[in-house]
Amino acid sequence: MLEHLKGNGQEFINEVATIGRIHHFHIVRLLGFCSEGNRRALIYEFMPNGSLEKFIFSKTNSSSHRPLSWEKLRKIAFGVARGVEYLHQGCNQRILHFDIKPHNILLDHNFQPKISDFGLAKLCSKDISIVSLTAARGTAGYIAPELFSRNFGEVSYKSDVYSYGMMLLEMVGCRKNNDPAVEIQSQIYFPEWIYNRMRQGQELCLEFEEDGDEGIARKLAIVALWCIQWNPTERPSMPMVLQMLETDLQSLEIPPMPFVSSDVETGAIT
Question: Where would I find the Protein kinase domain in this sequence (predicted)?
Fold first, then answer.
């Protein structure tokens, strides 16, 4: 059931129109909808495991107590990437989601991920790489810098790549990318903390149960850091992301510093 709809229900109409034309294993299937008076409802296929966010943001979860194995997280990351790739490349028109985040990734009985919530989506021609928007759209923490200022570059499908990268980092850290509740000041902005550890060759201080778990974590982190580069042209396309997720860890290079760094101890900005 949709509540607190803004305007004339344009987001509702947008979602029905967009998702009604999509058929892909990693995108939630719309079975029907209701529009009667002020009542609006979308009927999706049932996802018994709910959304990804409840598995990585629960107060009982932490990087040392994971309800999902690293192998499951790897498969979820790959499945979401396949879904986003389809939106960008597989439809007659390119679909930009603009709200990729753990809350909008639903999990079926086998923990296969399905992208949902197309209320902010925008359709555009495949031969047009730049998208015109009147205002930033998305969720704070996942919105690409160019959606706030064109000084960072033009809005395109690379904006979804940025959101996907932020989601990956949250999957790795089992926490929000910017969490004031973290006790250690230098770890508040998780992307910067994990980048510094990766660059210095340090352990990620995460809990690993099986051989290969650390390799999965480091690979997801490296791919994520490429995806959140502030310059959109430096981010990989989703086909490239899929290729990186399948390649050997040793073949992946750590990207340049993807953001403006804040030195917590000195207060300097670099």
Answer: 1-260
> Which domain covers residue 95, as residue numbers?
49-251
For 224, half-sphere exposure in the C-beta direction (CA atoms, 13 angstrom radius) is 28
How far is the C-alpha of 182 from the C-alpha of 188, rounded, in Å? 6
Q: What is the pTM of this model?
A: 0.88
Residues 6+ apart with CB under 8 A from 37: none
Tokens of 38: 């002020």
User: What is the maximal distance between C-alpha atoms in the chain?
Assistant: 59
pLDDT in tens, 12-39: 887 888 888 788 999 999 899 888 877 8
The torsion defined by the Cα of 133, 104, 236 and 151, in degrees rounded to 10, comes to: 30
Q: What confidence category does residue 209 fall into, taking pLDDT thresholds of 50, 70 and 90?
A: confident
Q: Is 98 part of a structural domain of the chain?
A: yes
Phi, psi (5° rounding) for residue 184?
A: -85, 120
- Give the domain CATH number at 76: 1.10.510.10
Percent of the chain with pLDDT strictly greater than 90: 50
230, 259 contact by CB (below 8 A) = yes
Q: Phi, psi (5° rounding) for residue 94?
A: -70, 135
99, 117, 160, 213: the catalytic one is: 99
Give a yes or no: residue 29 inside a domain.
Answer: no
Active site annotation includes 99? yes
Rounded CA separation 28/145 (Å): 28
